[in-house]
């Protein structure tokens, strides 16, 4: 996420390296370079200009602080200003209604339907809500079908009226139905168009008027850069929405949309979406995003994600198995599934300070586990439970079944055995033994 910008800003800070103090000249040069970096990241020109003007003013005003090196001072200033530019603090959504009504708007392909389902999943699993999804895109049967499939996947009801072409009455009926069934949040997915279109705007406006939503969330594809900002402005002029959802931040986005939207539209980014899976949705934290942009990592989000996935009961069982040396390939598969649930691997790694940059040109994706999973899934249940059964012919069969090679199967088995030994030593009070082994 935003690796190029991170790199460019780091280069800008280098201008001040070795400088003993902040001067008009070195600040002007640094600030000019930061502005260039922002514009290359597709940040709106006016936003970049006023951002760097502020930095310059503040940097010169802080000249008294001689204890801090100019380079460090500049990083801190840019960090705080970036966080402020993106809104300062995280903003919640309004869930006070009964039911609370959330209207989702945006262009076609921006990720509305996917986000609607992710939001339902988030509200259900993290906020203890009972959401209902409403298929309001009456023009594309595929969109209704897509929402139904996602609803089934996350076990959330999807309200539709087959053959109806009237999204206003669908929305009204959905709310009645939700009240009847005790559903406390109604999420209405609306129809988009490929570009701003008068009819689409009128339709969303009339749904807004009919259902008075608690929240209108505008969904936008962050890969579209400045277009995203312009579209946000047009939607906001018509709908006066409450917040923005930035999607596809897992892609090769430069950062312009994330950095400019708040300043141009004056509405907060509330969520960011980083993948197609239901779990890849995050509440937007401007300060954490500023950390990440400056290559400082985002340990807080990483720890939160790990905590969300941590299942105490399962961890206890696992520990018992490890101590008894019963950790098997089924447990291994479970562990991989847990890691994958945390989201995109490269993004996760990027949250560790310094690691994001190191991995910039390394291609890690969710396929990293693919061959391991294929190998384990080609084992029989007995083999998974008892890896010591694995003789030559079994290994050959597994390699063929998984579309891998005997070398890969052998490597996995060896790694698994080594891991098992290590786990047993560490967890079974064998820390001394482990220490001895490591010192050998
Ligand atoms: P809609 O037309 O606005 O409802 O958009 P969809 O929800 O159908 O999304 C369009 C495409 O973008 C689909 O293929 C989604 O799987 C994909 N998509 C949505 N959100 C994300 C995201 O955060 N990251 C990535 N990589 N793909 C996404």
Automatic annotation (TrEMBL):
Residue ranges of coiled coil: none
InterPro entries: AAA+_ATPase, P-loop_NTPase, Signal_recog_part_SRP54_M_sf, Signal_recog_particl_SRP54_hlx, Signal_recog_particle_SRP54_M, SRP, SRP54, SRP54_GTPase_dom
Enzyme class per UniProt: hydrolase
Gene Ontology CC terms: signal recognition particle
Chain residues that bind GTP: 106-113, 189-193, 247-250
Reaction equation(s) it catalyzes: GTP + H2O = GDP + phosphate + H(+)
E.C. numbers: 3.6.5.4
Assembly and binders: Part of the signal recognition particle protein translocation system, which is composed of SRP and FtsY.
PANTHER family: SIGNAL RECOGNITION PARTICLE 54K PROTEIN SRP54 (PTHR11564), SIGNAL RECOGNITION PARTICLE SUBUNIT SRP54 (PTHR11564:SF5)
Family: Belongs to the GTP-binding SRP family. SRP54 subfamily.
HAMAP family per record: SRP54
Protein name per Swiss-Prot or TrEMBL: Signal recognition particle protein
Organism listed in the record: Tenuifilum thalassicum
């Amino acid at each position: 996420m935003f690796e190029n910008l991170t790199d460019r800003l780091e280069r800008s800070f280098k201008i001040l390296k070795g400088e003993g103090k902040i001067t008009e000249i070195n600040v002007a040069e640094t600030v000019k370079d930061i502005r260039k970096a922002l514009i290359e990241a597709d940040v709106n020109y006016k936003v970049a200009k006023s951002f760097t003007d502020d930095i310059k003013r503040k940097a010169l005003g802080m000249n008294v602080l001689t204890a801090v090196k100019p380079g460090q001072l500049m990083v801190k200033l840019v960090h705080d200003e970036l966080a402020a530019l993106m809104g300062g603090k995280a903003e919640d959504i309004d869930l006070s209604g009964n039911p609370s009504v959330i209207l989702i708007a945006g262009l076609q392909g921006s990720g509305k339907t996917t986000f609607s389902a992710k939001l339902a999943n988030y509200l259900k699993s993290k906020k203890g809500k009972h959401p209902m999804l409403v298929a309001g895109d009456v023009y594309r049967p595929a969109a209704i079908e897509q929402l139904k499939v996602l609803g089934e996947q996350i076990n959330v009801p999807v309200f539709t009226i087959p053959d109806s072409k009237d999204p206003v009455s669908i929305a009204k009926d959905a709310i009645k139905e939700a009240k009847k069934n005790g559903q406390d949040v109604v999420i209405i997915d609306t129809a988009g168009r490929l570009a701003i279109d008068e009819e689409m705007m009128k339709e969303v406006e009339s749904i807004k008027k009919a259902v008075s939503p608690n929240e209108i969330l505008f969904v936008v594809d962050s890969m579209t850069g400045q277009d995203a900002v312009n579209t946000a402005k047009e939607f906001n002029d018509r709908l006066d929405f409450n917040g923005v959802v930035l999607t596809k931040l897992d892609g090769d986005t430069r950062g312009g949309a994330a950095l400019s939207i708040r300043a141009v539209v004056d509405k907060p980014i509330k969520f960011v979406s980083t993948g197609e899976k239901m779990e890849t949705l995050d509440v937007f934290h401007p300060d954490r995003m500023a950390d990440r942009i400056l290559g400082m990592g985002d340990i807080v989000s990483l720890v939160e994600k790990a905590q969300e996935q941590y299942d105490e009961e399962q961890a206890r069982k696992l520990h018992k198995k490890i101590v008894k040396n019963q950790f098997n390939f089924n447990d291994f598969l479970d562990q991989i599934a847990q890691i994958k649930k945390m989201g995109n691997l490269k993004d996760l790694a990027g949250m560790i300070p310094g690691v994001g940059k190191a991995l910039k040109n390394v291609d890690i994706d969710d396929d990293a586990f693919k061959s391991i999973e294929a190998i384990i899934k080609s084992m029989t249940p007995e083999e998974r439970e008892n890896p010591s059964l694995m003789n030559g012919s079994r290994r050959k069969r597994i390699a063929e079944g998984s579309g891998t090679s005997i070398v890969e199967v052998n490597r996995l088995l060896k790694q698994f055995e080594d891991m098992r030994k290590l786990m047993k030593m560490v967890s079974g009070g064998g820390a001394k033994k482990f220490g001895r082994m490591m010192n050998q």
